């Protein structure tokens, strides 16, 4: 499919409209050029000014909650124990080359993973901006980092669902166009067409285990089509000639002589800290709660509940219906669990700036939407535990959507009364959460 090409002039004009709609003091990035950063948000939001304004406000809240502008290398040094990375240079087309030696054997703590990825991409943006300014070139608007990673010593058990969710938050929503999922291109040539091949990818994973390469082929079926071309999982340590030799570490045949230790020391100097400083506790528990870290409390015993109960949730891929126990808290957090006695939530949502809509007509029910194999409504005297054998069911009727900047979440209830009750309290909590969010911004 041909890309949608937008000229730099048009992109900057749209960025100016977005900028005028934002508070002048809003903090949605740490380093770099404001116009360039806004254009990146525009690219991932269909060049739509209104959508982009909402997305930037979401990122400003995200950065505020994670104390993104306060993170120092001392705060995240422990997270680098099994994941060492550093910049190796900038290409002529304004892209940073970043090397990662990954030898994780176990999943990292979510707090560490989030803080270290925020810090890493902020550092990439800082060094890319400064290098391109010194060279007198425009930094790339999208796909602005070429990552070269080596996972020869990485264990598959180190990757989990929480990491996937956290990674999507950082690399897709809050650092848009880092590896773009859209076909929008900013270029002076209206006939410009990007190259999707081995020499023009964004992610080169060296010494990839065979199992990971096999799994990736399946994963690409559920990801943006563009990503399948931008990621190269290689079984060897040979890199394309399109990456300058000066940006390739010596161990892979290049001439770059830097090191992880040198980068750490430079970061400490920039941050005004010492690598001997202890990591600080920057993040509030409420933020960690998004990832199901609810202090080990049983679902039914979590304090400050507004409403709780069973609802159905439709998956984003495959449109399958799953039954979960939901808990809505006063401070604007919505959990869901597999069982009322669970202590680990499957997921959590912070409800700031969420828009909700109701009505069957507001969603197109296509033929590939599966009917659930059990009827939504429980028979008299029947409980969740005694539902019985599976049987052919009917489509859900009493559903609604919680709309977020990144996607729509579709929920269904067993009755119109139950739906009305959930929507009443969601409206109330979302309204209060939005007021608090405006104060933060």
From TrEMBL:
PROSITE patterns: CRAL_TRIO, PH_DOMAIN. It comes from the Eukaryota. Residues 304-431 form the PH domain. CDD domains: PH (cd00821), SEC14 (cd00170). SMART domains: PH. InterPro entries: CRAL-TRIO_dom, CRAL-TRIO_dom_sf, PH-like_dom_sf, PH_domain. Gene3D superfamilies: CRAL-TRIO lipid binding domain, Pleckstrin-homology domain (PH domain)/Phosphotyrosine-binding domain (PTB). Residues 58-260 form the CRAL-TRIO domain. This is PH domain-containing protein. It comes from Blastocystis sp. subtype 1 (strain ATCC 50177 / NandII).
